[in-house]
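Inputs:
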Amino acid sequence: MSSDCPDLDVNSQQVVIDGEGLQSLLAALKGAGYVVVGPTVRDGAIVYDRLASVQDLPIGWTDEQAGGHYRLRKRDDGAWFGYAVGPHSWKKFLFPSSLKLWSAQLKGKDFRIDAPEPDDTRYAFIGVRSCEMHAIAIQDRVFLRGQHGDPNYQAIREKVFIVAVNCGQAGGTCFCVSMNTGPGATFGYDLALTEVVDRERHYFVAESGTQPGRNMLSLIQQRPAEKSEAQAAREVVDRTARSMGRQMNTTDIKALLYRNYENPAWDKVANRCLTCANCTMVCPTCFCSTVEDTSDVTGQTAQRTRVWDSCFNVDFSYLHGGSVRPSGKSRYRQWMTHKLASWIDQFGTSGCVGCGRCITWCPVGIDITEEVRLIRESESSSQGA
Amino acid sequence: MQMQTLEPILSQHPFFQGIDRQYLALLAGCASNVVFHPNEHLMREGEPANHFYIIRQGRVSIEIAAPGQGAIPLQTVGEGEILGWSWIVPPYRWHFDGRAIQLTRAIALDAECLRGKCEADHDLGYDLLKRFAIVMAQRMSATRLQLLDLYGVNDTA
Amino acid sequence: MQPRLYRVTRVRREIRDTCTLDMEPADGSPIPGFTPGQFNMLYVFAVGEVPISISGSPQAGNQLVHTVRAVGAVSRRICSLKKGDLLGVRGPYGSHWPVAESSGKGLIIAAGGIGLAPLRPVLYQVQAQRESFGQVILLYGARSPSDILFPRELERWKLAGVEVKVTVDRSAAGWSGPVGVVTSLIPRLTFDPLNAVAMICGPEVMMRFTIVQLNQRGVTDDRIFISMERNMKCGIGFCGHCQYGPSFICQDGPVLPFSRVRNLFGVREV
């Protein structure tokens, strides 16, 4: 994924800040009018919500992830960002799950339509992972393209201040290296942090990516990073990259899936898939929505609301009295083929960033990397054997 | 005189495309020009199927008679199309009515004449059966599409 | 992204469950330009929105014309609107029939049922510029004689030099035209397949079999255009509902060259 951010200053100086520095960063962001959101522990998971202070961060927590499995565990090193990604993604703010589009008011026999002003909240995202940065860029291509760019998405997106965090460990289900989306953030951020924590020291190596990032950083107590500290930060990212638990072979994946619509692998996975739509809810790039037209009890006021939808819902493809995709098999095939193949024709990149959420949050642990592998293998076995 | 005019016409019709030259003469020997005026019947359900027709001009309605409903039209056969397969399938009786709804000119091929020649020369018989199998398959496929009632309630476009 | 308000100027009952609405912007402004094949999202207060192809002429002054079949909650309400009622309109959206691009060529226009409505703008354009095209054939299959849409215009198009062939699936008293599926009209057509562009609109089954017949006559897939339909919510490429493989029917379609979707056409539940 190439850099979309022209401001990125690759020669920006790396500095070291500590926990107090990070706290003052949050305070400075708040003072500048940002609504600061980031990871926090709630209901046994690390979710994204408002942060009052650094104390709200999942300090000392890590996540244990596997197919259909997510648990929080205590760390022994007190790391502040020692986990991967949870069930939330930043689309929660950029592409809210429920959004009023407009309302209509009856006036005698006529009616008028009133459009609300787009939400102009200024968010500061704390702790954006590289895979998530790619996911945001992917959704940018979806929502800001063509002649019908989404004004609601744009209004929030252009005001977001992004503090990226480079991953200190590979998550249990992620495969960003395969997808070329991490683990180190390379674009799109205002500030990037790498947490270095060992027995003696605990500090953050920080660098800015934009002028607003530089301005914000200049307000924080800091000192230039020494060579060893910059090296340690690089080592963190390299170590993460070397310890990926999964990989996806994306060679020619578009052609592979396009020629395998009738592969028996779809029937097999359909036996397990519950079409519960969890994967689409947690996926940071899934963008499908529907609209609900409602009115109040008096029937005088009507409203159109956009809400998240999922291609796994049987009504999603409703047409002429029935569903075009009534079987779970066709819906799973639609989701995976779209995510990994059609997306490339539509938007120029893969729709998958390798964050692993769909694997973790699938109740039956379906693994998208495994499904690709099965289809690939079914081809070589039919050719070779 | 008649044989000379019909052989070229038969040879040019797509239905006989690629047929052995010798059979064309044979077929022409069983062929004659016919005309039906509007409302005249080419065939009646139950009667011996003595011909099949190559429609050169006009339109024939394939129908079935039901008490209280008169003649129910099912399909039409028009210019250039082949009408009649009952001649080649026992008991060689028409299954439906066929009524000209426009002035219809056709070439009628005598069924008894042809059946005899097919029994005598199985190669001719096989060739004709193959050609008629295609006609019947197309007719059945089209009829099935008609049955679907594609433009009925469950459709929009 | 919100609808513009239009006022209904005329309601015409066509056949049994089908109506045609003429409408103009409520604020008196000009209607946006559109090309044949495009559609609008029509909104009925508090009920919802549906995608409906424009069925009027691009040169028809300031009236927007839609022919609607009442099959669901919204479309039924649209057909019960009266002159003077308001509705919301978003659009025009989507791709168009290659009419201008087919200048000098022969046209085979095949319509099944309500499919004639999205093709009517093409026929208006042919009528207005008949000399721009070669042989123009309209094949139209209707359910029964009483389900034939736009019967007076069919006659006018005949007079304008279009070969109009109408067939019905089910006959009725007084009908002396062809009875049988519209695909059965193709084998006996006299036309030059190398110079023909086909535009097909109707139920997907009808389009599939029509394409088979056209292929057999020598019309290649790159010169066959179809109008696809899928569930639509936003009409502008965001909601994801109308995807057909990689194509968004609301943006890459509804008119698509068959050569582009040929591989998907044979796959069930796509």
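Chain B has one domain: 2-147. Flag for discussion at group meeting.
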